Protein backbone atom coordinates (compact mmCIF):
# COMPACT_ATOMS: atom_id res chain seq x y z
CA UNK A 1 0.00 0.00 0.00
CA UNK A 2 1.56 3.31 -1.07
CA UNK A 3 0.67 5.45 1.91
CA UNK A 4 2.73 8.62 2.04
CA UNK A 5 1.33 9.95 5.31
CA UNK A 6 -0.23 8.56 8.46
CA UNK A 7 -2.64 10.71 10.43
CA UNK A 8 -3.52 9.84 14.02
CA UNK A 9 -6.38 10.75 16.27
CA UNK A 10 -5.08 11.88 19.69
CA UNK A 11 -7.33 11.05 22.66
CA UNK A 12 -7.72 7.32 23.19
CA UNK A 13 -5.60 6.52 20.14
CA UNK A 14 -2.14 7.87 21.01
CA UNK A 15 -2.90 9.16 24.50
CA UNK A 16 -4.31 7.04 27.28
CA UNK A 17 -7.16 8.85 29.03
CA UNK A 18 -7.15 6.48 32.02
CA UNK A 19 -5.35 9.02 34.20
CA UNK A 20 -8.57 11.04 34.08
CA UNK A 21 -10.53 8.05 35.41
CA UNK A 22 -8.05 7.62 38.26
CA UNK A 23 -8.37 11.25 39.27
CA UNK A 24 -12.20 11.05 39.15
CA UNK A 25 -11.99 8.02 41.43
CA UNK A 26 -9.76 9.92 43.86
CA UNK A 27 -12.27 12.74 44.10
CA UNK A 28 -15.40 10.56 44.20
CA UNK A 29 -14.50 7.06 45.41
CA UNK A 30 -16.57 4.34 43.75
CA UNK A 31 -17.81 6.73 41.06
CA UNK A 32 -14.69 7.25 38.95
CA UNK A 33 -15.53 4.93 36.09
CA UNK A 34 -19.17 5.93 35.89
CA UNK A 35 -18.33 9.63 35.93
CA UNK A 36 -15.57 9.38 33.37
CA UNK A 37 -17.85 7.40 31.03
CA UNK A 38 -20.68 9.92 31.42
CA UNK A 39 -18.21 12.78 30.91
CA UNK A 40 -16.73 11.27 27.76
CA UNK A 41 -20.17 10.43 26.30
CA UNK A 42 -21.43 13.97 26.88
CA UNK A 43 -18.22 15.51 25.57
CA UNK A 44 -18.70 13.71 22.26
CA UNK A 45 -22.44 14.46 22.10
CA UNK A 46 -21.74 18.14 22.55
CA UNK A 47 -19.18 18.14 19.73
CA UNK A 48 -21.76 16.66 17.36
CA UNK A 49 -24.68 18.75 18.56
CA UNK A 50 -22.75 22.03 18.53
CA UNK A 51 -21.38 21.25 15.08
CA UNK A 52 -24.90 20.70 13.75
CA UNK A 53 -26.23 23.76 15.59
CA UNK A 54 -23.35 25.79 14.11
CA UNK A 55 -22.40 26.82 17.63
CA UNK A 56 -18.80 25.72 17.77
CA UNK A 57 -16.78 26.43 20.89
CA UNK A 58 -13.26 25.07 21.57
CA UNK A 59 -12.94 21.50 22.79
CA UNK A 60 -11.59 22.75 26.12
CA UNK A 61 -14.92 24.50 26.74
CA UNK A 62 -16.94 21.51 25.51
CA UNK A 63 -14.95 19.27 27.82
CA UNK A 64 -15.46 21.51 30.83
CA UNK A 65 -19.20 21.84 30.12
CA UNK A 66 -19.56 18.09 29.70
CA UNK A 67 -17.87 17.57 33.05
CA UNK A 68 -20.30 19.96 34.74
CA UNK A 69 -23.24 18.10 33.18
CA UNK A 70 -21.90 14.67 34.10
CA UNK A 71 -21.28 15.67 37.72
CA UNK A 72 -24.74 17.17 38.05
CA UNK A 73 -26.35 14.08 36.52
CA UNK A 74 -24.59 11.87 39.07
CA UNK A 75 -25.15 14.36 41.91
CA UNK A 76 -21.44 14.84 42.51
CA UNK A 77 -20.30 18.22 43.80
CA UNK A 78 -17.82 19.89 41.43
CA UNK A 79 -16.07 23.08 42.46
CA UNK A 80 -13.60 25.10 40.45
CA UNK A 81 -10.66 23.32 42.06
CA UNK A 82 -11.75 19.83 41.07
CA UNK A 83 -12.72 20.99 37.58
CA UNK A 84 -9.31 22.61 37.05
CA UNK A 85 -7.52 19.51 38.36
CA UNK A 86 -9.44 17.22 36.01
CA UNK A 87 -8.93 19.50 33.02
CA UNK A 88 -5.24 19.63 33.97
CA UNK A 89 -5.00 15.84 33.60
CA UNK A 90 -5.79 16.25 29.91
CA UNK A 91 -2.57 18.22 29.41
CA UNK A 92 -0.25 15.47 30.63
CA UNK A 93 -1.81 12.20 29.49
CA UNK A 94 0.58 9.31 28.98
CA UNK A 95 1.19 7.79 25.57
CA UNK A 96 0.04 4.19 25.16
CA UNK A 97 3.04 1.87 25.53
CA UNK A 98 3.00 0.91 21.85
CA UNK A 99 3.06 4.46 20.47
CA UNK A 100 6.61 5.79 20.67
CA UNK A 101 8.28 2.60 19.48
CA UNK A 102 5.87 2.26 16.56
CA UNK A 103 6.01 5.84 15.34
CA UNK A 104 9.82 5.90 15.38
CA UNK A 105 9.93 3.09 12.86
CA UNK A 106 7.57 4.68 10.36
CA UNK A 107 9.06 6.25 7.26
CA UNK A 108 5.97 8.13 6.10
CA UNK A 109 4.98 11.63 7.17
CA UNK A 110 3.14 11.69 10.49
CA UNK A 111 0.44 14.00 11.75
CA UNK A 112 -2.07 14.30 14.57
CA UNK A 113 -5.61 15.39 13.66
CA UNK A 114 -7.71 16.07 16.72
CA UNK A 115 -10.88 17.67 18.03
CA UNK A 116 -8.66 19.10 20.75
CA UNK A 117 -8.25 22.85 20.72
CA UNK A 118 -4.69 24.25 20.66
CA UNK A 119 -4.86 25.15 24.37
CA UNK A 120 -5.25 21.43 25.14
CA UNK A 121 -3.41 19.78 22.27
CA UNK A 122 -0.30 21.97 22.28
CA UNK A 123 0.77 21.30 25.89
CA UNK A 124 -0.21 17.63 25.58
CA UNK A 125 2.01 16.94 22.56
CA UNK A 126 4.80 19.07 24.03
CA UNK A 127 4.71 17.18 27.33
CA UNK A 128 4.70 13.81 25.58
CA UNK A 129 7.90 14.42 23.64
CA UNK A 130 6.24 12.89 20.57
CA UNK A 131 7.75 13.94 17.23
CA UNK A 132 5.32 14.40 14.36
CA UNK A 133 5.36 16.55 11.22
CA UNK A 134 2.10 18.35 11.95
CA UNK A 135 -0.36 18.79 14.80
CA UNK A 136 -3.72 19.72 13.31
CA UNK A 137 -6.75 20.89 15.26
CA UNK A 138 -10.32 21.22 14.05
CA UNK A 139 -10.35 24.55 15.87
CA UNK A 140 -9.49 26.57 12.80
CA UNK A 141 -12.49 25.10 10.97
CA UNK A 142 -14.94 25.63 13.82
CA UNK A 143 -16.52 22.21 13.34
CA UNK A 144 -15.78 18.83 14.89
CA UNK A 145 -15.26 15.31 13.53
CA UNK A 146 -16.62 13.50 11.56
CA UNK A 147 -17.35 16.43 9.20
CA UNK A 148 -15.45 15.83 5.94
CA UNK A 149 -13.73 19.22 6.00
CA UNK A 150 -11.86 18.07 9.11
CA UNK A 151 -10.22 15.24 7.20
CA UNK A 152 -9.63 17.57 4.24
CA UNK A 153 -7.50 19.70 6.57
CA UNK A 154 -4.92 16.90 6.69
CA UNK A 155 -4.85 16.71 2.90
CA UNK A 156 -4.33 20.46 2.63
CA UNK A 157 -1.68 20.75 5.31
CA UNK A 158 0.32 17.67 4.40
CA UNK A 159 0.04 18.24 0.67
CA UNK A 160 -0.73 14.57 0.17
CA UNK A 161 -3.71 13.26 -1.82
CA UNK A 162 -6.33 11.48 0.28
CA UNK A 163 -5.73 8.24 -1.56
CA UNK A 164 -2.24 8.21 -0.07
CA UNK A 165 -3.22 8.99 3.51
CA UNK A 166 -3.75 6.38 6.20
CA UNK A 167 -5.86 7.41 9.20
CA UNK A 168 -5.66 5.75 12.59
CA UNK A 169 -8.27 6.10 15.32
CA UNK A 170 -9.56 4.16 18.28
CA UNK A 171 -12.98 5.77 17.79
CA UNK A 172 -14.84 3.69 15.25
CA UNK A 173 -17.11 6.56 14.13
CA UNK A 174 -14.00 8.71 13.55
CA UNK A 175 -12.34 5.98 11.52
CA UNK A 176 -15.54 5.55 9.47
CA UNK A 177 -15.89 9.29 9.00
CA UNK A 178 -12.36 9.28 7.60
CA UNK A 179 -13.21 6.25 5.44
CA UNK A 180 -16.30 8.04 4.12
CA UNK A 181 -14.03 10.97 3.23
CA UNK A 182 -11.65 8.72 1.34
CA UNK A 183 -8.76 7.81 3.64
CA UNK A 184 -7.51 4.28 4.20
CA UNK A 185 -8.43 3.66 7.82
CA UNK A 186 -7.19 1.59 10.70
CA UNK A 187 -9.53 1.19 13.62
CA UNK A 188 -7.68 0.44 16.86
CA UNK A 189 -10.37 -1.46 18.70
CA UNK A 190 -8.87 -1.31 22.17
CA UNK A 191 -12.18 -2.06 23.89
CA UNK A 192 -13.50 -4.98 21.86
CA UNK A 193 -16.49 -2.98 20.58
CA UNK A 194 -18.65 -3.89 17.57
CA UNK A 195 -18.09 -2.03 14.31
CA UNK A 196 -20.38 0.98 14.09
CA UNK A 197 -23.14 0.78 11.51
CA UNK A 198 -22.45 3.90 9.48
CA UNK A 199 -22.34 2.49 5.98
CA UNK A 200 -18.57 1.90 5.87
CA UNK A 201 -16.06 -0.64 7.14
CA UNK A 202 -12.55 0.02 8.46
CA UNK A 203 -9.85 -1.18 6.06
CA UNK A 204 -8.15 -2.86 8.99
CA UNK A 205 -9.11 -3.57 12.59
CA UNK A 206 -6.42 -4.11 15.21
CA UNK A 207 -6.05 -4.06 18.96
CA UNK A 208 -2.83 -2.04 19.11
CA UNK A 209 -0.90 0.42 16.98
CA UNK A 210 1.94 -2.05 16.66
CA UNK A 211 -0.29 -4.61 15.02
CA UNK A 212 -1.56 -2.21 12.38
CA UNK A 213 1.52 -0.46 11.24
CA UNK A 214 4.38 -2.88 11.14
CA UNK B 1 -46.91 35.41 24.64
CA UNK B 2 -48.15 35.71 21.09
CA UNK B 3 -47.37 32.24 19.83
CA UNK B 4 -49.23 31.43 16.64
CA UNK B 5 -48.00 27.87 16.26
CA UNK B 6 -46.75 25.06 18.50
CA UNK B 7 -44.38 22.49 17.09
CA UNK B 8 -43.81 19.18 18.87
CA UNK B 9 -41.08 16.62 18.78
CA UNK B 10 -42.56 13.11 18.44
CA UNK B 11 -40.58 10.31 20.13
CA UNK B 12 -40.44 10.71 23.89
CA UNK B 13 -42.38 13.98 23.76
CA UNK B 14 -45.81 13.00 22.40
CA UNK B 15 -45.23 9.27 22.08
CA UNK B 16 -44.17 7.03 24.92
CA UNK B 17 -41.34 4.74 23.83
CA UNK B 18 -41.72 2.45 26.83
CA UNK B 19 -43.51 -0.19 24.79
CA UNK B 20 -40.20 -0.77 23.05
CA UNK B 21 -38.51 -1.42 26.40
CA UNK B 22 -41.22 -3.92 27.34
CA UNK B 23 -40.76 -5.82 24.10
CA UNK B 24 -36.96 -5.86 24.56
CA UNK B 25 -37.52 -7.30 28.03
CA UNK B 26 -39.80 -10.00 26.62
CA UNK B 27 -37.15 -11.08 24.14
CA UNK B 28 -34.18 -10.80 26.51
CA UNK B 29 -35.37 -11.04 30.13
CA UNK B 30 -33.36 -8.89 32.49
CA UNK B 31 -31.77 -6.96 29.62
CA UNK B 32 -34.69 -4.86 28.38
CA UNK B 33 -33.78 -1.56 29.96
CA UNK B 34 -30.07 -1.83 29.22
CA UNK B 35 -30.71 -2.77 25.59
CA UNK B 36 -33.27 -0.06 25.00
CA UNK B 37 -30.95 2.57 26.49
CA UNK B 38 -28.02 1.38 24.37
CA UNK B 39 -30.27 1.30 21.30
CA UNK B 40 -31.58 4.82 21.85
CA UNK B 41 -28.11 6.23 22.56
CA UNK B 42 -26.70 4.71 19.40
CA UNK B 43 -29.72 5.77 17.34
CA UNK B 44 -29.08 9.40 18.29
CA UNK B 45 -25.31 9.15 17.80
CA UNK B 46 -25.84 7.82 14.32
CA UNK B 47 -28.18 10.71 13.42
CA UNK B 48 -25.51 13.22 14.47
CA UNK B 49 -22.56 11.37 12.96
CA UNK B 50 -24.30 10.68 9.65
CA UNK B 51 -25.46 14.30 9.43
CA UNK B 52 -21.89 15.52 9.91
CA UNK B 53 -20.53 12.89 7.49
CA UNK B 54 -23.18 13.98 4.97
CA UNK B 55 -24.30 10.37 4.77
CA UNK B 56 -27.97 10.71 5.59
CA UNK B 57 -30.17 7.64 5.54
CA UNK B 58 -33.80 7.54 6.75
CA UNK B 59 -34.42 7.26 10.48
CA UNK B 60 -35.92 3.82 9.99
CA UNK B 61 -32.57 2.58 8.70
CA UNK B 62 -30.63 4.40 11.42
CA UNK B 63 -32.92 2.85 14.03
CA UNK B 64 -32.49 -0.66 12.63
CA UNK B 65 -28.71 -0.28 12.41
CA UNK B 66 -28.52 1.07 15.97
CA UNK B 67 -30.50 -1.95 17.16
CA UNK B 68 -28.06 -4.32 15.46
CA UNK B 69 -25.13 -2.51 17.08
CA UNK B 70 -26.73 -2.46 20.52
CA UNK B 71 -27.56 -6.17 20.41
CA UNK B 72 -24.05 -7.08 19.29
CA UNK B 73 -22.50 -4.91 22.01
CA UNK B 74 -24.59 -6.73 24.65
CA UNK B 75 -24.10 -10.11 22.97
CA UNK B 76 -27.80 -10.61 22.40
CA UNK B 77 -28.85 -12.63 19.37
CA UNK B 78 -31.04 -10.64 16.99
CA UNK B 79 -32.67 -12.31 14.03
CA UNK B 80 -34.86 -10.75 11.39
CA UNK B 81 -38.00 -11.68 13.30
CA UNK B 82 -37.04 -9.90 16.52
CA UNK B 83 -35.75 -6.89 14.61
CA UNK B 84 -39.00 -6.59 12.67
CA UNK B 85 -41.07 -6.96 15.84
CA UNK B 86 -39.11 -4.23 17.62
CA UNK B 87 -39.27 -1.90 14.64
CA UNK B 88 -42.99 -2.62 14.49
CA UNK B 89 -43.43 -1.31 18.03
CA UNK B 90 -42.34 2.11 16.78
CA UNK B 91 -45.39 2.28 14.52
CA UNK B 92 -47.95 1.91 17.31
CA UNK B 93 -46.52 3.75 20.31
CA UNK B 94 -49.03 5.09 22.78
CA UNK B 95 -49.46 8.82 23.35
CA UNK B 96 -48.51 10.05 26.81
CA UNK B 97 -51.65 10.45 28.94
CA UNK B 98 -51.40 14.25 28.95
CA UNK B 99 -51.15 14.69 25.18
CA UNK B 100 -54.62 14.36 23.70
CA UNK B 101 -56.37 16.43 26.36
CA UNK B 102 -53.78 19.18 26.13
CA UNK B 103 -53.62 19.45 22.37
CA UNK B 104 -57.42 19.61 22.04
CA UNK B 105 -57.50 22.77 24.10
CA UNK B 106 -54.88 24.65 22.12
CA UNK B 107 -56.06 27.34 19.73
CA UNK B 108 -52.78 27.83 17.85
CA UNK B 109 -51.67 25.85 14.83
CA UNK B 110 -50.08 22.52 15.71
CA UNK B 111 -47.34 20.57 14.00
CA UNK B 112 -45.04 17.63 14.60
CA UNK B 113 -41.39 18.03 13.58
CA UNK B 114 -39.48 14.78 13.84
CA UNK B 115 -36.34 12.95 12.86
CA UNK B 116 -38.68 10.08 11.98
CA UNK B 117 -38.85 9.18 8.32
CA UNK B 118 -42.29 9.09 6.69
CA UNK B 119 -42.36 5.28 6.75
CA UNK B 120 -42.24 5.44 10.57
CA UNK B 121 -43.94 8.73 11.31
CA UNK B 122 -46.91 8.36 8.98
CA UNK B 123 -48.27 5.10 10.43
CA UNK B 124 -47.52 6.27 13.98
CA UNK B 125 -49.53 9.48 13.73
CA UNK B 126 -52.30 7.69 11.83
CA UNK B 127 -52.56 4.96 14.47
CA UNK B 128 -52.63 7.49 17.29
CA UNK B 129 -55.63 9.41 15.99
CA UNK B 130 -53.83 12.66 16.82
CA UNK B 131 -55.02 15.70 14.86
CA UNK B 132 -52.37 18.23 13.88
CA UNK B 133 -52.07 20.73 11.04
CA UNK B 134 -48.76 19.38 9.73
CA UNK B 135 -46.51 16.37 10.18
CA UNK B 136 -43.00 17.39 9.16
CA UNK B 137 -40.07 15.03 8.75
CA UNK B 138 -36.39 15.92 8.39
CA UNK B 139 -36.32 13.33 5.63
CA UNK B 140 -36.84 15.85 2.85
CA UNK B 141 -33.79 17.81 4.05
CA UNK B 142 -31.54 14.78 4.44
CA UNK B 143 -30.12 16.02 7.72
CA UNK B 144 -31.15 15.40 11.33
CA UNK B 145 -31.78 17.61 14.35
CA UNK B 146 -30.37 19.91 15.71
CA UNK B 147 -29.30 21.40 12.34
CA UNK B 148 -31.00 24.81 11.99
CA UNK B 149 -32.51 24.02 8.61
CA UNK B 150 -34.68 21.40 10.34
CA UNK B 151 -36.34 24.05 12.49
CA UNK B 152 -36.57 26.36 9.45
CA UNK B 153 -38.74 23.69 7.83
CA UNK B 154 -41.47 24.43 10.35
CA UNK B 155 -41.27 28.16 9.60
CA UNK B 156 -41.55 27.50 5.88
CA UNK B 157 -44.37 24.98 6.08
CA UNK B 158 -46.47 26.75 8.65
CA UNK B 159 -45.88 30.20 7.19
CA UNK B 160 -45.31 31.56 10.69
CA UNK B 161 -42.25 33.64 11.67
CA UNK B 162 -39.92 31.90 14.10
CA UNK B 163 -40.57 34.54 16.76
CA UNK B 164 -44.15 33.28 16.88
CA UNK B 165 -43.41 29.57 17.08
CA UNK B 166 -43.22 27.59 20.31
CA UNK B 167 -41.29 24.33 20.22
CA UNK B 168 -41.82 21.47 22.64
CA UNK B 169 -39.40 18.60 23.17
CA UNK B 170 -38.45 16.16 25.89
CA UNK B 171 -34.92 16.03 24.47
CA UNK B 172 -32.99 18.90 25.97
CA UNK B 173 -30.49 19.13 23.11
CA UNK B 174 -33.42 19.32 20.65
CA UNK B 175 -35.07 22.07 22.67
CA UNK B 176 -31.77 23.98 22.81
CA UNK B 177 -31.17 23.47 19.10
CA UNK B 178 -34.58 25.03 18.51
CA UNK B 179 -33.74 27.83 20.95
CA UNK B 180 -30.48 28.49 19.13
CA UNK B 181 -32.49 28.73 15.91
CA UNK B 182 -34.87 31.25 17.43
CA UNK B 183 -37.96 29.43 18.68
CA UNK B 184 -39.45 29.85 22.12
CA UNK B 185 -38.83 26.45 23.69
CA UNK B 186 -40.40 24.24 26.30
CA UNK B 187 -38.31 21.40 27.60
CA UNK B 188 -40.41 18.57 28.98
CA UNK B 189 -37.98 17.11 31.47
CA UNK B 190 -39.73 13.81 32.07
CA UNK B 191 -36.61 12.13 33.48
CA UNK B 192 -35.32 14.77 35.90
CA UNK B 193 -32.14 15.33 33.87
CA UNK B 194 -29.80 18.35 34.15
CA UNK B 195 -30.02 21.06 31.51
CA UNK B 196 -27.56 20.39 28.72
CA UNK B 197 -24.61 22.78 28.49
CA UNK B 198 -24.98 23.99 24.92
CA UNK B 199 -24.92 27.75 25.40
CA UNK B 200 -28.71 28.19 25.66
CA UNK B 201 -31.43 27.75 28.24
CA UNK B 202 -34.98 26.51 27.67
CA UNK B 203 -37.57 29.28 28.04
CA UNK B 204 -39.57 26.96 30.24
CA UNK B 205 -38.93 23.61 31.89
CA UNK B 206 -41.83 21.38 32.87
CA UNK B 207 -42.47 17.76 33.71
CA UNK B 208 -45.57 17.31 31.55
CA UNK B 209 -47.20 18.84 28.50
CA UNK B 210 -50.14 19.93 30.58
CA UNK B 211 -47.95 22.05 32.83
CA UNK B 212 -46.37 23.91 29.96
CA UNK B 213 -49.23 24.73 27.75
CA UNK B 214 -52.19 25.65 29.85
Q: Could you explain the architecture of this structure?
A:
- 2 copies of one chain form a homodimer.
- Chain A is an alpha/beta fold.
- The first copy, chain A, has 2 domains: 5-15 and 93-213, 3-Layer(aba) Sandwich (Rossmann fold); 17-89, Orthogonal Bundle (DNA polymerase, domain 1).
- Helix content of chain A is 47%, strand content 14%.
- Chain A has 9 helices and 8 strands.
- The first copy, chain A, has helices at 18-27, 32-53, 59-73, 80-89, 99-105, 118-128, 148-158, 172-181, 209-213; strands at residues 5-8, 15-16, 94-95, 109-114, 134-137, 165-169, 184-188, 204-206.
- In chain A, strands 5-4-1-6-7-8 form a 6-stranded parallel beta sheet, with helices on both faces. In chain A, strands 2-3 form a two-stranded antiparallel ribbon.
- In chain A, strand 4 (109-114), helix 6 (118-128) and strand 5 form a beta-alpha-beta unit.
- Chain A is globular, with a radius of gyration of 17 Å.
- The first copy, chain A, starts with a strand and ends with a helix.
- Chain A binds chain B through residues 41, 44-46, 48-55, 57, 65-66, 68-69, 72-73, 143-148, 173, 176-177, 180, 193-194, 196-199, and chain B through 41, 44-46, 48-55, 57, 65-66, 68-69, 72-73, 143-148, 173, 176-177, 180, 193-194, 196-199.
Amino acid sequence: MALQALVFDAYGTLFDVHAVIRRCEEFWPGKGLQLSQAWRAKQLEYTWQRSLMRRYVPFSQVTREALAYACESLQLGLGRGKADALMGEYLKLALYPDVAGTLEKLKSRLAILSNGSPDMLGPLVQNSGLKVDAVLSVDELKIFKPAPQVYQLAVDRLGVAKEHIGFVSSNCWDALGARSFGFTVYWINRGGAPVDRLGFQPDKIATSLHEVLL
